[in-house]
């Protein structure tokens, strides 16, 4: 199954985030608890970690770029060979944990 | 990665402040930062993030919760040749440091015939954002009346950077007042962004029918109100003061000469406020004009969000104040022989 990676909102005062660093690239496999991406906010760094085994299939927002909270940052999938759609909007939201640090 | 150098970046408000401080510390080995949590924590709003790692604990120093001592140390360090930035997170707590700030920092140059200069920046965060009676106040106007103090208040990323750069080059004490509600904002900041000189207001929105002057977070409130009013055919000119001491009366008067109507807007109290000062000075220069002041209601700011909102100017109240101002009879320009 394919998923979109989003920072779930709403979060108080936080409408947009900037990608600080991806901890993987297309094809990277993540285990539960692995750090996938760090995001800069106006006050903190947000760490998003995989909640289940997943594969990073396409980065939609590169490091240094901005995205609205709730909008997709990347496409993930359960296995590496599922065909990717053109757009991420209709995909299910991936299950991630996130923490402000 | 692009091979082209990035010229214009979008940054968070805190990053604009941080960049100005970082550039100053890079260029001036005498520049230091002091305050509660400015070190490894990176500042209450992370506005000093990375400075401790870059410059070390001797130049980015955590202090105890002792505002009078922090400012006193800053004054001594400045008089001895350093260039300290002292960060007091909530403006409310500068009250504890008024004696050193007013009686020593502001007066040192006068008392010593110019022999002692105090190039000190005291950074304060003003404004209401859910933190109650003693963490929400805006009393910039109190500090404007102290001879020898300069007071500046950015409204956006670009002038947060530019005013901090200027503050950290000034030869006397500067109070730099930012605002809790500006920290969640972001905006463009050119790689070669200019300093913002003191005493220069800027026209944030040109308009014909009324002048609204504001500073800090209230500039965005004034702009929001102007958007509402524009839909009904009322065209407001919004002036961002940026610098409260010295004041740029020329820019304000040029605008009021054109519009004939002045609304002063501030988050602090109206009595003896920035608006009172500007209204008086504008009319001393231009003669009688339609003028109205808008600020907080005369009550402490509540930690109850409903009461907090009820006590402060918002876009709807600003729009109504402009409408009411424009309903008052126009005052003809005075005859001058």
If you had to describe this structure to a student in words, what would you say it looks like?
The complex is a heterodimer of chains A (101) and B (337). By secondary structure, chain A is an all-beta fold. Chain A has no helices and 10 strands. In chain A, the strands form 2 sheets. Chain A has a 5-stranded mixed β-sheet with strand order 3-6-8-1-9, with no helix packed on it. A 5-stranded antiparallel β-sheet of chain A has the order 7-2-4-5-10, with no helix packed on it. The radius of gyration of chain A is 12 Å and the shape is globular. Chain B is an alpha/beta fold. Chain B folds into 2 domains: 180 residues, Rossmann fold (3-Layer(aba) Sandwich); 126 residues, Rossmann fold (3-Layer(aba) Sandwich), CATH 3.40.50.920. In chain B, α2 links the parallel β2 and β3. At the A-B interface, loops of A face loops of B.
Strand order of the largest sheet of chain B: 3-2-4-5-7-6-12
Structural class of chain B: alpha/beta
Order of helices and strands of chain A: EEEEEEEEEE
CATH fold name of chain A:
OB fold (Dihydrolipoamide Acetyltransferase, E2P)
Q: Can you lay out the helices and strands and say which pair or pack?
A:
The complex is a heterodimer of chains A (101) and B (337).
Chain A: E1 2-6, E2 16-22, E3 29-30, E4 35-40, E5 45-50, E6 54-59, E7 66-68, E8 72-77, E9 92-93, E10 96-100
Parallel strand pairs in A: 1-9
Antiparallel strand pairs in A: 1-8, 2-4, 2-7, 3-6, 4-5, 5-10, 6-8
Chain B: E1 8-12, H1 13-27, E2 31-35, H2 51-55, E3 60-62, H3 67-79, E4 83-90, H4 98-105, H5 108-111, E5 121-126, H6 140-144, E6 150-152, H7 157-167, E7 174-179, E8 186-190, E9 202-205, E10 210-214, H8 218-230, E11 236-240, E12 243-245, H9 249-259, E13 261-269, H10 274-286, E14 290-296, H11 305-311, H12 315-327
Parallel strand pairs in B: 2-3, 2-4, 4-5, 5-7, 6-7, 10-11, 10-13, 13-14
Antiparallel strand pairs in B: 1-8, 6-12, 9-11
Helix pairs in contact in B: 1-7, 3-4, 8-12, 9-10
């Amino acid at each position: 199954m394919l998923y979109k990676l989003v920072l779930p909102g709403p979060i108080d005062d936080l409408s947009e985030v900037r990608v600080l660093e991806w901890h993987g690239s297309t094809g990277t496999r993540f285990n539960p608890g692995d750090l996938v991406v760090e995001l800069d906010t106006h006050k903190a760094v947000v760490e998003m970690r995989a909640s289940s085994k997943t594969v990073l299939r396409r980065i939609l927002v590169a490091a240094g770029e901005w995205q609205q909270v709730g909008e997709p940052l990347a496409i993930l999938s359960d296995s590496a060979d599922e065909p990717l759609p053109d757009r991420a909007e209709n995909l299910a939201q991936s299950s991630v944990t996130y923490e402000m640090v | 990665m692009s091979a082209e150098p990035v010229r214009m970046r979008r940054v968070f408000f805190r990053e604009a402040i941080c960049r100005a401080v970082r550039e100053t510390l890079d260029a001036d080995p005498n520049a230091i930062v002091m305050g509660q949590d400015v070190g490894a924590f990176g500042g209450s709003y992370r506005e000093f993030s990375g400075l401790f790692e870059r410059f070390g604990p001797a130049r980015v120093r955590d202090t105890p919760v002792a505002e009078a001592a922090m400012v006193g140390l800053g004054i001594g360090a400045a008089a001895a040749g350093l260039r300290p930035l002292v960060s007091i997170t909530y403006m409310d707590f500068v009250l504890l440091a008024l004696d050193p700030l007013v009686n020593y920092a502001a007066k040192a140059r006068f008392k010593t015939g110019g022999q002692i200069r105090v190039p000190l920046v005291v950074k304060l965060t003003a404004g209401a954002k859910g933190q109650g009676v003693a963490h929400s106040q805006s009393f910039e106007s109190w500090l404007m009346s102290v001879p020898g103090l300069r007071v500046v208040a950015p409204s956006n990323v670009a002038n947060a950077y530019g005013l901090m750069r200027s503050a950290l080059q000034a030869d006397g004490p500067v109070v730099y007042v930012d605002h809790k509600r500006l920290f969640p904002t972001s905006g463009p900041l050119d790689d070669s962004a200019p300093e913002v000189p003191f005493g220069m207001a800027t026209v944030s929105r040109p308009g014909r029918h009324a002048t609204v002057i504001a500073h800090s977070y209230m500039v965005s409130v004034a702009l929001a109100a102007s958007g509402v009013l524009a839909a009904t055919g009322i065209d407001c000119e919004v002036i961002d003061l940026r610098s409260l001491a010295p004041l740029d009366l020329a820019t304000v008067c040029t605008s009021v000469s054109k519009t004939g109507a002045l609304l002063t807007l501030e988050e602090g109290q109206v009595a003896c406020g920035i608006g009172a000062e500007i209204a008086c000075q504008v009319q001393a220069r231009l003669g009688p004009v339609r003028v109205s002041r808008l600020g907080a209601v005369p009550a402490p700011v509540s930690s109850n969000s409903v009461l907090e909102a009820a006590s402060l100017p918002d876009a709807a109240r600003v729009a109504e104040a402009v409408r009411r101002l424009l309903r008052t009879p126009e005052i003809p320009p005075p005859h001058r022989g």
